[in-house]
């Protein structure tokens, strides 16, 4: 959850002596680029930035603004190059140094990002924004205790803010300090990555006695988060609450079997609730007895099961493996946690194995065009919802997938899952090879940031020696 420092990213530039195009001044063109950039019209903004740079290649501010645009578009290599160009022109430009550190951190070049952020905080030693950024890059390097100590010290001195506490919370969660970590995680709205719903007419539940009260649980982030947090719903019922959960259509049938939970697809101001809560606050509000996460409560409809059995029937005694290589393309960090279908080529060549794609989404056409479709059966491209996908997962002998909502569904069903993680990974998975949140899951991590090839080589070697595969071959 990193965000650019206040005052960095796209900033206004001083007018250049050379206009970038006839008929418009440099200042007018640059303001146009800024307006397009800030409104999210990134391709149009990029065209104007390029016009500016063609006419004024010596303007450092435009270079770093262009770099900030490229970073937002996920083009990290060119973004880093643009920021370096800005600093070659003006080595003291603070915004360019901040922007370069952000792009380097996104690109997992953490050592250089840390060095820049230490220089920046030395120049403004009580700036919570710079403290937040330094804590974030320490976390990315598995230096969670250092990040916690850094924020603790600033808090004792009275200048840490909620964005800093959020970084501390994420570090605590990575280490399994659930109570303190989820308490700090309540600061997650401070950095603007997520927000509370606007104009909600009901008070937010803060842990008051809730027996006999009507509680609305709202989704906050992605499908995977909704699946993870569903395990806390039975505890709300045990506390005596009348629970309604707002569920997005792709999850509705998968959650339909939750005992005592009313599902709705819309919340209206006229609805008579006593409280509401975001689902991501449930671990903090409900707690975990003995520090152990409760089991997830999903169920698969019978019609989805019949559909899945028909799909896998032609593959006989093959060792069936469900695979996914990318998550939501709208998630800012998706490039770090995702690879491509070609990464599974070695696994597809293991004797006795048949791979099934569990992917459904905007990258589906790219999969079909990749050359891997056919080697990997397109099992879920036409799924109606997660209930259909869950039924296919339940027919698999093993799931091997990058960290997406699919792993949460499969592991919630108790299926064996090999979860392929980026170097940093998600707080849910901690530092080891297992996680108490999903006993059937084995964690595989990049040894070096971005190195999927080495990770897949280890996975392939382990798959070739998998007892279930060897036994299946013996019966073939």
UniProtKB/TrEMBL annotation:
Region Disordered, annotated ranges: 1-23
SMART domains, sorted: TPR
Keywords: TPR repeat
Compositionally skewed regions (Low complexity) per UniProt: 7-23
Highest taxon of source: Bacteria
Each TPR repeat, start to end: 60-93
Organism encoding this protein: Thermohalobaculum xanthum
GO molecular function: glycosyltransferase activity
Lineage: Bacteria, Pseudomonadati, Pseudomonadota, Alphaproteobacteria, Rhodobacterales
Pfam family, one: Glyco_transf_9
Name used for this protein in its record: Tetratricopeptide repeat protein
